Amino acid sequence: MHRPTLLTSLTLAATVAAGALAVVPSAATTTAPYLNSHQPVERRVNDLLARMTPAEKIGQMTQAERNAVDGDQAKITELGLGSLLSGGGSTPTPNTPAAWADMIDGYQARALATRLRIPLLYGVDSVHGHGNLVGATVFPHNIALGATRDPELVREAAHITATETRATGPQWVFAPCLCVARDDRWGRTYESFGEDPDLVTSLETAIDGFQGRGAGQLDRPDRVLATAKHFAGDGDTTYGSSAGDYKLDQGVTITSRERFRRIDLAPYVAAVREHRVGSIMPSYSSVDWTEDGVGNPVKMSAHHELLTEVLKQKIGFDGFLISDWDAINQLPGDYPTQVRTAVNAGLDMFMVPYSAGKFEQALLAEVTSGQVSTARIDDAVRRILRAKFELGLFEHPFTDRRYAGTIGSPEHRAVAREAVAKSQVLLKNDHRALPLDRSQRIYVAGANADNPGNQAGGWTVSWQGASGDTIPATTVLEGIRQYAPDTAYSLDASAPTAGYQVGIVVVGETPYAEGVGDVGNHGHTLALSAADQANIDKVCSAIATCVVLDVAGRPQIVTDQLPKLDALVMSWLPGSEGGGVADVLFGERGFTGKLPVSWPRSEAQEPINVGDRDYDPLFRYGFGLTTRH
User: Fold this and answer.
1) Which residue ranges does the record assign to the Glycoside hydrolase family 3 N-terminal domain (predicted)?
2) Contact predicate 140/40, CB 8 Å
3) CA distance 535 to 519
4) DSSP 307
5) Residue 19 pLDDT > 60
6) Is 17 helix (H, G, I), strand (E, B) or coil?
7) Whole-angstrom Cα distance, residue 252 to residue 300?
8) Which of 105, 237, 320, 441 is most enclosed, with most CB atoms within 10 A?
9) Range of 327's domain?
């Protein structure tokens, strides 16, 4: 592997320090077609591919976590890494836009010190805003956006997320999730737009928000490469089919091919053919076809039929497939077998966070022995290089920081606040309890009324998220006080309630992510907590008008509490802009949100979905009362 000379290293360091946005090729390489931005992308790809050794190609197929190389950044050059990522909570210190950009530019300089100077692609989980960055605009999670039924608003939210993300360095986001959530006990329910594939498909405008509406926009400083995930069926797994403590996540989708096509696959057809999504992440989950008898599930990372025959060949996907975190380690066999199986199934880039060197050695051995063909490697690398050229990384590998000043700006937060307001679903409104009057004496109780971390949920600053003051935010309580400054607050409803006209109890969940949040794992349940139930009982028995807000990533069981309430609002996980909840409570905006999932009467009723035989939820899919502005 070529090592940079001292002069080259000093030049690169000076380039980074100066914040330069382009790398000037040396005289020896200026005639190379792949370095000529005036050449067509495909010619550039083919030219570069023809110059690469097998080891260099495999390096492009390898993605490491930044923590694996941060202490010894020479590994980026030595391994010829094609990509790095920040997992949930993997951030620079301090966690600021400038520190992010400086960090990634430093990594990029190491990549540009390789023989062919192929730039890095850097990925992050910007699933509801640039969630790893403290101070970024934090949007409601996807399930709330599903309640808005507003494709243009979803596109705008994704565009803001792209702008804030790329201004700090990453050019690639692992979003949007196109899962169709068919069982609300799943810990990733909030990452889904809803239970109906048509609803999910309608909100794939998020892809346009990330990448741009047409071809040729990826190289702009306000766009990022999008990732449709998790292909396919991850929201449709059977309860109890997962390994370990998980109950649904990473489980098995037991289905016929026809049902799979209609429910699970449909959103990806539109993502590829209508929105030209640049990358797709296969799921950890498996598929077990019912046509040939249940009992022989195949992991998606090993599924040649779905990854290559269906997705790439039949649907026509020409982007690249990126594995999930260490996903190949879940495949049968020893490590070389796992690598060989996944590559031959159709995976193009491998998220191997802490084993990049081991992966590269194993894959090179498989190619050398003929177990993996050179044609398969070339196909994978061609797809990856195409994305890098379209992103403009060869001309502008370092961070374009021109939009850094817009991160968390009032303008961006205003869009997030609009999304919050439009996502609120009014489920009950007896005696015209809502909208509220600013002159009413209001008493607020509950753990989720004044907790930024709880209202943001998982994938916020860290993987699982956390309760408390984790992000700059307007809490639900603060939003209410913008309209009624004298509003009282008691966490546990222990403060006196006499004299108040309206009681608002804010109940819900604490943060979780992925299978950790599956019902039945670590005590997670759809039931309201004992503290939430006690607060409802105290407030609703003492104050004439009682309103309950549910701040959660999925429906909770409220069947027994419902008769005690005058009004019930599903607030979802609103993110940083709790003022949007208050906007509809006080009639500044009307309630317009509609349920993107069916609301069960009991936990035992799950899974329940629109179109089921004997469909009898507490609240039907699409239900939502309205009020006028």
Assistant:
1) 56-386
2) no
3) 23
4) I
5) no
6) helix
7) 10
8) 237
9) 56-391
The strand order across the sheet containing 172-173 reads 172-173, 121-124, 83-86, 62-65, 350-351
pLDDT, residue 30, reads 56
Closest CA to 458 of 1, 129, 91: 129
Q: Nearest-CA neighbor of 505 among 524, 484, 467, 531? A: 531
Q: Residue 268 is encoded by which pair of tokens?
A: 């990806």
Going edge to edge, which strands form the sheet with 425-429? 425-429, 567-570, 545-551, 502-508, 442-445, 488-490
Put the strands of the sheet holding 320-321 in their side by side order: 227-231, 279-282, 320-321
Return the HEC string of 113-124. CCCCCCCCEEEE
Positions marked catalytic? 324, 514
By the 8 A CB rule, do 357 and 384 touch? no
Number of domains in the chain: 2
117 within a domain of the structure (yes/no)? yes
Q: How many angstroms separate the CA atoms of 117 and 288, rounded?
A: 43
DSSP 3-state helix, strand, coil percentages of the chain (rounded to 5)? Answer: 40, 15, 50
Please tell me whether residues 170 and 296 are part of one structural domain.
Answer: yes
We report the CATH number of the domain holding residue 539 as: 3.40.50.1700
The 10s digit of each residue's pLDDT in 51-67 is 999 999 999 999 999 99
Whether 105 is in a domain gets the answer yes
How many Cα atoms within 13 Å fall on the side-chain side of residue 396? 16
Verify that 304 and 448 share a domain, yes or no: no
Structure tokens at 200: 């999910």
272 in Cβ contact with 314 (< 8 Å): no
**Domain's final residue, options 376, 391, 406:** 391
Look up residue 335 and give its amino acid: Y
Q: Taking a C-beta distance cutoff of 8 angstroms, is the pair 437, 450 a contact?
A: no
**419 found inside a domain:** no
Which of 358, 361, 211 is CA-nearest to residue 274? 211
Render pLDDT for 492-547 as a digit per residue (tens, 0 to 9): 999 999 999 999 999 999 999 999 999 999 999 999 999 999 999 999 999 999 99
Q: How far apart are CA 210 and CA 277, in angstroms?
A: 9
Average pLDDT over residues 577-599: 98
Q: How far is CA 547 from CA 434, 437, 567, in A?
A: 8, 13, 5
Q: Are residues 433 and 487 in the same domain?
A: yes
Give every strand in the sheet of 252-255, ordered side by side: 252-255, 286-289, 298-299
Question: What burial class does residue 564 get, using C-beta atoms within 10 Å of its C-beta: 0-12 exposed, 13-18 middle, 19+ buried?
Answer: middle
Structure tokens at 177: 């999730």
Residue 290: CATH number of its domain: 3.20.20.300
Q: At a CB cut-off of 8 Å and minimum separation 6, what does 387 contact? A: 121, 218, 225, 278, 279, 319, 320
